[in-house]
Amino acid sequence: MDTPRGPLQPTGEGTAHVARLEPSAALRELVVHYWLPTWQIPAGANHEQRILSYPGCNLAIEDGIGTLYGPVTRLSLKRLSGSGRAFGVLLRPGTGALLCNIPVPELVDGSIPALDCGLDCAGAIHEALHAEGTIEHQQRSAIAIFEDWLVERLPTGMDAEGLLLNRICADIESTPGIGRVAQLCEHWQIGERALQRLVHTRMGITPKWLLQRRRLQEAAALMGRGTGPNLARLAHALGYADQAHFTRDFAGVTGMSPGEYVRQVQAGSVGS
């Protein structure tokens, strides 16, 4: 259910694929991975996918135009038509604030031209994706162009505050059972106000929201694998007091009930 991390699954006719490639070792504290979608949709057709995004900034280049997207707090809709290729960068939680020319809280659920962040190589990346050679060679060439720019743009890499944020977010992503902000504060030996300030300043959201989003990602993944698990049991496993609270949060973020989500996964209209 997350575009940079899950497959593009358009409904109806047509094909779409997303390649995910790792960044260079020196840039792993700045970039999670690159996502490079390709699609071919018959003329007159229009396909869409609902997306619950990773809670960070994404940089995307399509048709030679770069856009920096802020954290998305709600379900978004991606429509595909015709044929094309794009270049995407899923940034680490601490990276967006280093690139953005406005405070990240102002970028939540929004976007700005990547040119405003100094990205002047969008055209070169687009050309690399359409140059002669194999798709793999085209993609690697595009990544090399971007990474040269990123090293020049951020020569000192990630700062200490950003490194801490990256590790806290990784902890949330990889450790089942973390459901309360107090658990994070205790584990990382950081005060709740300091944690709130760090996450808000660098990501524009709250620690509580990060924890909730992770639980909903887990729920979406579990429901996407089956035919509809016991929702009361799932809510309990995810740390909810009852099924009603889980259903409310899920619908509030995705715009659909858990049951409706399962039906759409089965129909192939939601990426899981």
UniProtKB/TrEMBL annotation:
SUPFAM superfamilies: Homeodomain-like. Residues 162-264 form the HTH araC/xylS-type domain. Keywords: DNA-binding, Transcription, Transcription regulation. SMART domains: HTH_ARAC. Gene3D superfamilies: Homeodomain-like. It holds the Pfam family HTH_18. The keyword DNA-binding applies. This is AraC-like DNA-binding protein. It comes from Paeniglutamicibacter psychrophenolicus.
